[in-house]
Design brief:
271 residues, mainly alpha, MetI-like fold, disordered C terminus
Length: 271
Amino acid sequence: MKVKYIKNGLNVIYALLILVPVLLIFLTTFKSPEEVYRNVLGLPKEFRFENYTSLFVEQSMSTYFWNSVIVTISSVFLTLFFASMIAFSITRIGGIIGNLIFALFTLGMMVPAQVNMIPLYQLVSSLGLTNSLIGLIVVNSAVTLPVAVFILTGFMKSLPKSLFEACTIDGANNWQIYTKIALPLSLPSISATAIFLFVMDWNDLLYPLLFITNNDYKTLPLALLEFQGEYLTNYPMLFTGVMIASAPMVIAYVFLQRYFIAGMTAGAVKG
């Protein structure tokens, strides 16, 4: 009984460590800069929505928001499309060749993004894709592909080979097996991977900072840097931008949490 109370107490402490900073950030969005510097932890004198309206009216936040939506959704779709086919191919090939292909993609996860900055910029610049959303989509898709292949391959390897063999005997080709069998069965894992990729692409700052200088193509993480000055930071506007940027991730998790949990636990229990 004491152990149960200790666990519950630790869970409460852990929840407070997460909720208190989030609540503080949320309350700060209703303050003015003067109120923040006067009393950081205090409640706002009145709940004003000026920071939210100012972001979309004066700061062109709607443009940055839609840029992030376009880049993120396109990148996640392309990554999942190619990663699912690669994972299926690795599973079907098997043996030394399949393991070698899987190892090559795994090695891609071991190379830090900062190491590739100069050659990647030269490549993107030579293709004329700097200051464009297409360039960001291509780069994000390529960079996150190894992670997606790693996750989806692990799941598809757990699918019974006898099922694929039965489809082959019935006359189905590889494309039919991939679209009619592998993809539907892999939906929980694909959904979990989609959430993981969504968070990575949505929060990415390195590549927009590297490739984008035109305000028309800035994404949300890059736009939030405008509120940080050398001598003064507009914390209410910055935190308001953070809340807006976090909203899509929370919504995506709420609607996909069933698939996310199923994908994380798939294959954990046999029999």
